[in-house]
Amino acid sequence: MEKLYVNTLNDSKYIALITVLDYEILVSKYLKQLSFEASPNKPEHVLVDFALKTGIDKYRFVEFDINESGKIDLNSYKYVSLNPFYETLANNFLKDKKEIVLNSILTDSQINQLLN
After folding, report:
1. Nearest CA to 31 among 59, 85, 70, 83?
2. What are φ and ψ of residue 19, in 5° steps?
3. Which of 19, 25, 52, 87 could form a disulfide with 104 if both were Cys (CB 3.0 to 4.6 A apart)?
4. For residues 103 and 60, is the Cβ–Cβ distance under 8 A?
5. pLDDT classification of 102: cutoffs 50, 70, 90
6. Ranges of H-type helices in the chain
7. Which strands form 4-8's sheet, in the order they lie side by side?
8. Structural domain boundaries of the chain?
9. At what angle do helices 108-115 and 84-96 cross, to 10 degrees?
10. Long-range Cβ contacts of 80-88 (<8 Å, 24+ apart)
11. Please, are residues 114 and 95 in contact by the beta-carbon 8 Å criterion?
């Protein structure tokens, strides 16, 4: 089973939107394995969607910095409120992973919110 899904973004705010697909994993172990191309012309942050691990609440989205070597700085985390674009993007991906959402820790109302 997939643990994470990395959706590369081409915008001025984030390099990628990373969706956690397995609520049982130690996320930091998998985030440490990821690497991104470091460039002064690219954004220096990734956005991680924890909906399937923490639920749909104020702790859903976390922003991390990318260091000079292209690795995620796990100590730089910051919970963020997003504009609707990123939330819609994250929700659309989760709709494509319906089976995972249905078997997640989300409440029935949260599942309906995502899938409908």
Report:
1. 70
2. -105, 125
3. 52
4. no
5. very high
6. 27-33, 51-54, 84-96, 98-102, 108-115
7. 4-8, 16-20, 45-49, 61-66, 72-79
8. 4-115
9. 100
10. 80/47, 82/47, 86/14, 86/17, 86/47, 86/61, 87/61
11. yes
User: Model's pTM, two decimal places?
Assistant: 0.92
CA dist., res. 10 & res. 112, Å (int): 29
Say how far residue 97 (Cα) sits from the centre of its chain.
14
Give the model's pLDDT for residue 72: 97
pLDDT digits (tens, 9 = 90+) for 56-85: 999 999 999 999 899 999 999 999 999 999
Mean of all residue pLDDT scores within the chain: 93
